[in-house]
Design brief:
binds S-adenosylmethionine, Rossmann fold, 7 strands, 43% helix, DNA polymerase, domain 1
């Protein structure tokens, strides 16, 4: 959703737009090409490989770091407020395609899945050391896997598991044959869950949204693209809270209005984009503007 993202940031005439998930740099390049000369982009990624691969460009600055600490990253650069923050969540094509990173159930590699050196444990540690009931909760909650308990029990019985192919085979065998034939690769949901646990992705998002919104200048914009329903819900609720609408039934004093939501419903990619890039299928884009 490159065009949609650029259009949402277009009213900004000057200042820093933070691309908090630089990845392959597609959004950062589109922002630099599509916005005026007054806009500089700071690309952040917790994966040093993403930043090392980035081409040098004028008006583009880069930083390795976790967007959960976006305010700290900005403070180190003596930036006190920004015009925009973009989150395009999840893994990059490069991470998925690089077998040694261990993200893909389709490529044989070590069970790693750490997006960057700041992740505490690798997937191998999570898969082999987490007690089965806790692993089942991770697979159920983060992977939305209906057969989470079966999968977790099968993983516990097959330990030690040290590579992606072995994990994918164990998960596939644990899923009932009738289900295996529908809904994509049977290991997709478990791999997603383990990756999200390894990288503590929901905690990073929650902190990144809070801190990113805090450093926005009045009129500044925050855009988030989520590929997972839990992430999308987190974005939706954070924006709604910023609007002064809360899920809490009665508050004694109305909370201050911090945001204006620009997307009453999430924006979805059009069918042509999904045909070009099937991963975009689950994308939901939400945007909000910092209140004056
Ligand atoms: C979907 S890709 C972004 C693709 C990018 N928008 C592009 O156009 O190429 C997500 C990227 O965000 C990074 N990432 C995920 N969580 C992060 C976090 N908490 N802090 C910083 N980077 C993160 C990943 O390492 C990955 O490179």
């Amino acid at each position: 959703m490159l065009e949609e993202v650029v259009d949402l940031f277009r009213p900004l005439e000057c200042g820093v737009v933070v691309d908090a998930t630089y990845g392959g740099g597609g959004h950062a390049a589109a922002l630099l090409d599509g916005l005026g000369e007054g806009i500089c982009v700071l690309g952040i990624d917790r994966d040093p490989e993403a930043i090392e691969r980035a081409p040098g460009r004028s008006r583009l600055d880069l930083a390795v770091g976790n967007f959960g600490e976006i305010d700290e990253i900005l403070r180190m650069r003596e930036i006190s407020e920004v015009a925009g923050v973009l989150f395009d969540l999840g893994v990059s094509g490069h991470q998925l395609d690089t077998a040694r990173r261990g993200f893909s159930y389709r490529r044989e590699g070590p069970l790693d899945m750490r997006m960057g050196p700041d992740a505490a444990d690798s997937a191998e540690e999570v898969v082999n050391r987490t007690p089965a009931p806790q692993l089942a909760r991770i697979i159920r909650n983060l992977g939305e896997e209906r057969f989470a308990h079966r999968v977790a029990r099968a993983i516990a019985a097959a330990r030690p598991i040290t590579d992606t192919e072995h994990l994918a085979a164990v998960v596939k065998k644990a899923i009932p044959a009738a289900t295996r034939r529908s809904g994509g690769h049977p290991a997709r949901r478990t791999f997603q869950a383990v990756r999200m646990a390894v990288n503590d992705e929901l905690a990073a998002l929650s902190s990144g949204l809070d801190r990113g919104i805090r450093v926005l200048r009045p009129g500044g914009r925050c855009v988030a693209i989520a590929y997972h329903s839990l992430e999308d819900r987190l974005v939706k609720h954070r924006f709604r809270r910023g609007e002064g609408r809360s899920s809490e039934p009665v508050l004694p004093v109305a909370p201050p209005v911090e945001l204006v939501v620009l997307t009453p419903r999430p924006m979805r990619p059009d069918p042509e984009e999904v045909a070009r890039n099937p991963r975009a299928r689950s994308a939901r884009l939400r945007a909000a503007e910092k209140a004056a």
